[in-house]
Amino acid sequence: MKLCYRGVDYTYNAPSLEVRDSELTGCYRGRSLNFKYLSHVPVPQPIASYTYRGVGYSTNAQGQVEPLAAVPERQPVFQAGRVAVKTGLRARRHLLQEAAEAHRINIQQSIQHRIDVARSQGNEQLLQQLEDELHQLA
């Protein structure tokens, strides 16, 4: 799609998302509605070992339950909770680091595009400011 912002033409490529129809339907102002949802939204799941009524099991990164081959030593409840919290925090920290890295890369690409536009327009003052901003990010 060709767009123009403040006199600068650019092409916008909308991200493609895989969408599925839901079984949920509704009615709004006399017209029927079919709801849709994204089919591949990643949700980090905690990886931990649990015991329920003496039977041990563990969960994997996809949230699926797996039986334990050997029953581990029984830990006091407060220590088992710490282990589950630590693994969940580790997964969340990893996800946040990935998001921060993607954000930093997107900002650098945006600044680089703005530098290219300033160069093509011959705006030296803006070019200097953008290059300083790009060096601060790196």
Helix content: 40-55%
From the N-terminal CA to the C-terminal CA, the straight-line distance is 31 Å
Work out the radius of gyration.
25 Å
Q: What is the string of SSEs from the N terminus onward? A: EEEEEEEHH
Strand order across the biggest sheet?
A: 5-6-7
- Main beta-sheet strand count, sense and barrel state: 3 strands, antiparallel
How many domains, in number, for the residues? 1
* Count of alpha/pi helices: 2
Shape from CA axes? flat
The chain-level structural class is alpha+beta
Low-confidence stretches: none
Nearest-integer average pLDDT? 80
What is the count of β-strands? 7
Query: How much β-strand is present in the residues?
Result: 25-35%
What does this protein structure show overall?
This protein has 138 residues and is of the alpha+beta class. The chain has one domain. It has helices at residues 77-121, 124-137, and strands spanning 2-5, 8-11, 19-28, 31-38, 48-52, 55-59, 65-67. The strands form three sheets. Strands 5-6-7 form a three-stranded antiparallel sheet. A hairpin with a 5-residue loop joins strand 6 (55-59) and strand 7 (65-67). Helix 1 (77-121) packs antiparallel against helix 2. The mean pLDDT is 80.
